[in-house]
């Protein structure tokens, strides 16, 4: 008899730990990702090379299997499919519809905040570029332009000049599934994140992090430090607001993450949310900081079985996202052994191997890896980050631009919409 499987939508670095957690729980894994060389392609028992946004077709292709749960960590784009596949396949846990909508529609999330009377800020959202530009002209500069339904910093841009707005809107629309773009007033203050997990409509755990970014124009996350240094009254207010938002959305159980800004008056303004495990290594950060395995907890919730969220320790932890500023071929990684030997290093994960094509860090999906550091003080964490940065080197051979008279190389053949990379189910992984 075929053992039950867990269906994981997405096969990237932030979904891969869910594959391993599913195996530890004794389940087979079905992975879905439109990239044929995604990390999940070699980690799954069955890998479907197709979009995660076609739940009916996915359900048809796994109909012969016993699917015990559906999950998609770190992906807003797949959350609607998680909800629909949970319904189609009859799995135990189904995410709250309004929480899913708030995760994939930034304008709707703003409406929820307004309805709760929480601090807000100016924004406009539309699928009509002309209407959007006209409405955005009334917003104070600078503004942030982004797709209304995408994540991973794709298509995000800070605009300080009205003349640059049309091009920014056009770029953001290329990353929007719905064609809608949101233009928001740019908030000033400390950028923070909260990675939380609810159980029975109560806040079971929350990790509040100090978030660093690349700054303008793309504002892409480059790292987190936990716990963030918040005034007690601010942390109490944050917890209350998180519960108010989750209550309004009907999100009573499961992971949820928020990005927000705290200004100089200690006022909290939320930017966006995701009713799923966070990306950019956030579950790894929580595990090293508090000893909580949120991947396993999220899987157990999806399976409809009890899960554990008890903190085992409380450590100051930093997560650094490893990147390159060059498009090209990774030729070598230098200093990895020296970084792993640092007393503060808890974990170093490097995703590409020499010979792989790498991209400069213009969106979160272009990261090269994660470095997790643990120390007794924030000063020691920062010193360790500086030492690691001086030791670790990615040797990238830049891409050479094509000569003017040289015809462009043909694009590789497209992968069919649904191609099983491995059609035989393996009962054992060797």
TrEMBL record:
Keyword Ligase: yes
Entries under Gene3D superfamilies matching the protein: 3.40.50.20, ATP-grasp fold, A domain, ATP-grasp fold, B domain
GO molecular function: ATP binding; ligase activity; metal ion binding
Superkingdom, taxonomy of origin: Bacteria
Name under which the protein is recorded: Biotin carboxylase
Origin species: Streptomyces nanshensis
Pfam families: CPSase_L_D2 (PF02786), LAL_C2 (PF18603)
Region described as Disordered: 399-430
Biased composition (Low complexity): 399-420
UniProt keyword terms in alphabetical order: ATP-binding, Ligase, Nucleotide-binding
InterPro entries tied to this protein: ATP-dep_AA_Ligase, ATP-grasp, ATP_grasp_subdomain_1, CPAse_ATP-bd, LAL_C2, PreATP-grasp_dom_sf
Domain ATP-grasp: 110-303
